[in-house]
Amino acid sequence: MRACRNVRSTAFSFTAEMIEGLGLVLRTHRPRLCRTSMLILFVVIALLCGDVLAQQKPDVSGDYAGILGSLHVKLHIKGSADASLAGTLDSVDQGAMGLPCDDFHLDGTALSFSVPSVHGNWKGTVSSDGASLAGTWSQGTPMPLTFTRDTFVPASKASAIDGIWLGTLKVGSQSLRIQLTVRSDSSGREYCSTDSLDQNAMGLDCANVLLDGNKLSFDVPSVKGRWEGVLLEGSKNLNGTWNQGSPMPLNFERQAVAQTVKPPSFDAAIAPVKPADLEAVLNRDLAEALKSGALAPGTDAGVVVGVVDHGVKRVFAYGTAKTDSIFEIGSITKTFTGLVLAQMVAQGKVTLDEPVRELLPAGTVGKPDGAEITLLDLATQSSGLPRMPDNFNPADPANPYADYHAANLYVFLGKHGVAKPATASFLYSNLGFGLLGQALAVRAGTSYPNLLRNEITAPMAMKDTVVSLSPDQQKRFMTGHDAEHHPAHAWDLDAFAGAGAIRSSASDMLTYLEANLHPDKLRIQSGHNDADGKTLSSAVVQSHELRTDAVPGTRIALAWLCNTATGSYWHNGATGGYSSYAVFNPKNDYAVVVLSNTSIGSTGSFADLLGQHIRQRLEGQPAVSLSELR
User: Fold this and answer.
1) DSSP assignment string, 464-475
2) For 167, which DSSP code?
3) What is the CB neighbour count within 10 angstroms for residue 473?
4) Ramachandran class of 285: left when φ > 0, alpha when ψ lies in -120 to 50, beta otherwise
């Protein structure tokens, strides 16, 4: 769920697929959103430079910052002796750093440029002093994007907390390295930014930075998190608590130099690969990973790849996996929950605009005075609910969701309420999808596992897609591993089942993805007793309808994220010992699923990157390199 991340969640997560224990993370290597992808080059950004006043161009060299929708972006411009311009763009909230810019044209005050890696371009004007760049970013849909020059003037003498700090945030069985950079300006005001190094989410700006004696606090608005703590005697340690729905210890130690994240490299493009030829191509492209990298002997790592292209299917297994191995799929579960919702709408059991309050047991939560959270709000990650409830305190961090039950969820809702904030926009929430799955199960008078089976897996004959494994399936269930390749406990989800509880195989996932590619050809399993199974085809179509903006260049349907430039729908997932990625493209008639028994590591999600790599090979594009992944 990287989600269950990215996207790939639970903790220092930064986008729609972040690591979170359950949850998606959007990464730059993949368009993970219709990804990809979740590890993927999603959407992003804008760019730079130039302006002229009275035939004299202002100096635009330097660093700029802007906000595209809800995404923080930074632009770095360099001028050369021949007056040409070069630059790079950072999509900070997505961890997409150093994206090369190209095709700079500066004519008078008019400036334009492109960012080839995300198929975007920017056009606008430069102010006479070069302090601002006002224009429009286009990546399928034009959006306003203005950059402002960074005019920070550092203090002549650093404060006691100025510098670079590094800490580790424990998220279930995973460890996220968090880097904090603090600096003070000439007026004595403190500024900071944070990097989630293992999520490739860099340069997240802080707000409300307050230093009071030895007490420090700051917010990170882009991920709706807050840190509070103290500077210990000796000025080498900052100890405190990170809160992003639930409090977790996060202590920092002063560092001499900053740690950086190496940008991904790419293998040269080759002719579009057909499914019949893909295994040979992957054998070559994965050679280093199999020898000394992410799939090397001794890691116990295994991955299964499923591909369908114009009706031709192939399944490949690498490392310790077999083609029929079963994995946790994490937050890809959310797309099943979205489809269950569409099914129940088609059957007349619920409506999309129905308040979630009305599906819960009587007396669970009171009716708010104004707008309240609907089922559609939950399915499109626009409810305003936090990523996690504040009463989430797992007894066993290795299996963090096992003891969070419906009663705990109802206690949280009774306190928090179900009012919908007036400014609610896309905010990836495991809590929201956990609530959606629970509410639909209550309305159906059954459990989430039974609801999943009745509405989706039984009609589609997906026998290996379950919440609880049979003895035979348990034998094929891969042992999960954390980022350091240590065995990790499987995750058991109760109230959060709708957010990330499903286990599945590549073959079953291809059945699911084929149904999404061609809902008109969907055949209900012979002998299935539920007449409502006949609504499944129309429900799949409804689940693809794009409802609202997620991040720039990306819209969200019922859980599925869609890259508006490519038309690809995608979702990824990550739990304590597994990672996953799924994408389907109706226009080009292909789908890819990658299931791994290793969670997200310092180089990102192997499942996301492998999924992106395969997508790029199918389309004949340069493919993100897999050789350096550990």
Assistant:
1) T-BSS--HHHHH
2) E
3) 16
4) alpha
Give me the pLDDT at residue 558, please.
Answer: 97
Q: What's the pLDDT tens digit per position in 118-128?
A: 888 999 999 98
Instruction: Go through the domains of the chain in sequence order and give each one's CATH number.
Output: 62-138 (no CATH), 163-255 (2.40.128.120)
Tokens 């493919």 belong to which residue?
623
Say if residues 147 and 65 touch (Cβ distance below 8 Å). Answer: yes
CA distances from 220 to 136, 171, 196, 203 (A): 26, 18, 12, 10
Distance in angstroms (rounded) separating the CA atoms of residues 343 and 559: 14
β pairing state of 215-220 and 266-267: unpaired
For the sheet with 590-596, list strands across it: 312-319, 302-309, 590-596, 579-585, 568-574, 561-563, 554-556, 548-549
Q: With 0.90 as the threshold, say if the pTM is over it.
A: no
Amino acid present at 127: S
349-388 residue pLDDT tens: 999 999 999 999 999 999 999 999 999 999 999 999 988 8
Place of tokens 């399936």: 473
CA of residue 548 relative to chain centroid, distance: 17
Contact between 529 and 459 under an 8 Å Cβ cutoff? The reply is no
- Whether omega for the bond prior to residue 45 falls within 30 degrees of 0, making it cis, is yes
Q: What is the residue type of 181? A: T
Assign 3-class secondary structure to 343-388: HHHHCCCCCCCCEHHHHCCCCCCCCCCCCECEHHHHHCCCCCCCCC
Overall average pLDDT of the 215-228 stretch? 89
